[in-house]
Amino acid sequence: MRAYWFDNEAGVDQRELHDSGRDVPVDYLAKLGVLYYRITDENDVDALAKERSYKNRDVITVSPEKMGDIYEEKVKSFFHEHLHEDEEIRYIRDGTGFFDVRSESDEWVRIQLEKDDLIILPAGIYHRFTTDNTNYIVAMRLFKEEPKWTPLNRGPEVDVNPYRKEYLASHLAV
User: Which residues pair with 77 in a beta bridge?
Assistant: First the structure.
């Protein structure tokens, strides 16, 4: 895992590094509510799942070979800024991808993940996801209840969502 400030360079594909050269430490991610673990043994994922009450999981492969004609459309949809009303937990099994999360000053922090990286994004944090330029990632998704992935795209009505307000109060309060 490597986290850094996103460079916001216009006209460059979302799957490129967008590396500003300014790293972001793990403790800063934690202040945003983002938790990171390096886990090489799936038994440790099971222990974390039990500890955090994750009851369900699945594995998703994001690649043109696996998804066919809908790949480009899906990757673009994942990259729309959104939040979820549940934690988003991803354990990378193969490949590389990026989660971008909003900082307290509304800037993007890019988090590059690879095999054996596990990330937990809190409910209510604005974020987006993309594969890297290899167009391939395999991730285990963990869920507290039935598997679901319901993005709420950023907008005035989502800014007042109770999960967003709780996130702001608990993680970005001044």
Answer: none
Q: Alpha-carbon distance 149 to 152, whole Å?
A: 10
> Torsion-angle region of residue 126: left (phi > 0), alpha (psi -120 to 50) or beta?
beta
Supply the pLDDT for residue 174. 52
Distance CA 36, CA 22 (A): 19
**Overall pTM surpassing 0.90 (yes/no):** yes
Task: Show Cβ contacts of residue 26 under 8 Å, excluding neighbours closer than 6 positions.
Answer: 1, 3, 36
Q: Which amino acid is at 69?
A: D
Q: Three-state secondary structure along 126-138? A: CEEEEECCCCCEE
Backbone angles phi, psi at 72, to 5 degrees: -60, -40
pLDDT of residue 70: 95
Does residue 18 sit in helix, strand or coil? coil
Cα angle at 100 between 120 and 82, to 5 degrees? 80
